[in-house]
Amino acid sequence: MEDELEPSLRPRTQIQGRILLLTICAAGIGGTFQFGYNLSVINAPTSYIQAFTNETWQARTGEPLPDHLVLLMWSLIVSLYPLGGLFGALLAGPLAITLGRKKSLLVNNIFVVSAAILFGFSRKAGSFEMIMLGRLLVGVNAGVSMNIQPMYLGESAPKELRGAVAMSSAIFTALGIVMGQVVGLRELLGGPQAWPLLLASSLVPGALQLASLPLLPESPRYLLIDCGDTEACLAALRRLRGSGDLAGELEELEEERAACQGCRARRPWELFQHRALRRQVTSLVVLGSAMELCGNDSVYAYASSVFRKAGVPEAKIQYAIIGTGSCELLTAVVSSSFPWTLYLAMACIFAFILSFGIGPAGVTGILATELFDQMARPAACMVCGALMWIMLFLVGLGFPFIMEALSHYLYVPFLGVCVCGAIYTGLFLPETKGKTFQEISEELHRLNFPRRAQGPTWRSLEVIQSTEL
Q1: What tens digit of pLDDT does each residue of 309-345 get?
Q2: Cα 239–Cα 34–Cα 97 angle in degrees, nearest 5
Q3: Which candidate in 74, 140, 385, 390 could, as Cys together with 147 as Cys, close a disulfide (CB 3.0–4.6 Å)?
Q4: 185 DSSP 8-state letter
Q5: Helices (H), 99-127
Q6: Which DSSP string do the residues of 187-251 spell out, in sequence order?
Q7: Residue 295 phi, psi (nearest 5)
Q8: 95: which residues sit within 8 A by CB, 6+ positions away?
C-alpha cells in the first residue's frame, strides 16, 4: 500500500520543494542581492563620478576641488552606503515585529525606488548631492534586508535544511556582487554617459521582488509565536512542507511559543544586560565586527584602485574586478620581463576573497537567527546589523587613506583581525548544525550557566538526558 502511495506523493513533494525555492529566490533577489549589487556597482563609475563632482563644484564656485577633497568626497559617496545600512539595521527590528518578515521586505523596496529616481536624474540636475542621498537610501534598503531576509528564511525552512537555506543569503550577496561588476563593464552600462542608469539599475531586482514575494507565505514562526494565529501558521507550513505529517514541527513551534509566552520582544540594549545571553551576544559582537574589519567588502568598492596600485594594466582592471566577485560566488555555492608579479598580487586578492566566502560570508549573517530565541531575534539582528554597518562605514571611509599610507602592506592590519576571529570561533562558538532552536537555546543556557548545569539542583531526567556526561 505504501509503495502505491509513493508515486502520488512525489509530485506534491516536488511542488513544495519548488515553493521553498521560490521563497528563497524572491527574498534573495530584492534582499542580499541588492546589498552585493550596490556594494560593487559603485566601483565601475569611480572616475566618472569623481569628474562629475569636480565639474559640478567648479560650475558652482568657479574653482576646481583640490585632489584631496575629491578623494574625500568620493570616500563619502562610498561610505554613505554603510551609514544608510546602519539606519536600516536599526529599522529592521521594529519592522520585523510590527509588519512581519515578508511585509517588511516588500515595504523595504520604497528606498530602492526613491534612490533609483535620484540616481537617474542626478546628472541632469547637476547635483552630486543626489548621488549621496541615493547611496544613503540604497544603504537603508540593504540594512533592512540583510537582517530580515536571514530571519525570514531561517524561520521558514525545515530544521534539516535550515543551514543550506540560510547560506542562500551569502549566495545572493555574491551573485549581486558579480552582476554589479558585469553590468558595470564599459561595453554595458559602465561608460562615461551611462553611469546614472548603472546606479539606477538596482530598481530591476526590487521590481522582481515586488512581483514575486506577495505570492509566497509568511514565516510560520512569526504567525504562531508573534501573532498567535495557529490557522495561518498551519496554512503557511502546508504551503512550504506539503500536507504530510506536520505534528512534529508544530509541536516544536508550540514548545517555543510556550517558552516565549508572557514575554515581550527584547530591545537591543537589553541583550547586553542578561547573563543568559552572554555567550550569544559576545559571539555576535566579535564575529560580526571581524567580518567587516577583515577588509573583504572594501575590495569591491575600491577594487580598481587596489589593482591599479598592484600594476594591473588599465584596460584589464574591469575584468580583474569581475574575478573578485566570481571568487566569492564560487565559494558561496560550493562552500566547500616578470609580469607574473602583478598576477600574483591579483591571485592573493582572489585567495583572500575565496577564504572569506568559505567562512564568514555564509555563517556570520545567520548567527543572530540561530543563537537567539524568537523574542530576542529581532533585537539581535539589529545589534548584528548595526555593528556590521558601523565597521563597514569606518573601513570604507578609511580604506583609501590606509592604502596611501601602507601601500603594499595594506592588508597587514586586516590579517590580525582574521587571526583573532578564527581563534574565537574555534574556542567559543557552539555548533548549531541539525539542531532545533530549542536545543540550541538549551545548549547555550548550559554554556552561560556552567555551574548550574553541573550542580545538584538540576535533577530532572530530561535535563540529564540532554547533557553530555
Answers
A1: 667 777 777 777 676 667 656 655 655 644 544 555 5
A2: 55
A3: 385
A4: S
A5: 101-107, 109-125
A6: TTT-STTTHHHHHHTTHHHHHHHHHHGGGSPPPHHIIIIIT--HHHHHHHHHHHH-SS--HHHHH
A7: 90, 0
A8: 104, 107, 108, 144, 148
pTM equals 0.70
Lowest-confidence range among 77-91, 329-343, 403-417?
A: 329-343
Question: For residue 169, is pLDDT > 90?
Answer: no
Write down the residue that cell numbers 535533577 correspond to. Answer: 459
What is the spatial distance between Cα 242 and Cα 225, in angstroms, rounded to a whole number?
A: 21
* Residue 214: how many other CB atoms lie within 10 Å: 11
Instruction: Round the CA-based radius of gyration of the chain to a whole number and report it.
Output: 24
What mean pLDDT do residues 195-203 have? 92
- Please name the amino acid found at residue 442: E
**Residue 151 in grid coordinates:** 530571519
- Given a contact cutoff of 8 angstroms between Cβ atoms, the answer to whether 260 and 355 are in contact is no
DSSP secondary-structure letter at 338?
Answer: -
The C-alpha cell of 277 is what? 545571553
| C-alpha grid cell, residue 188 | 554595458
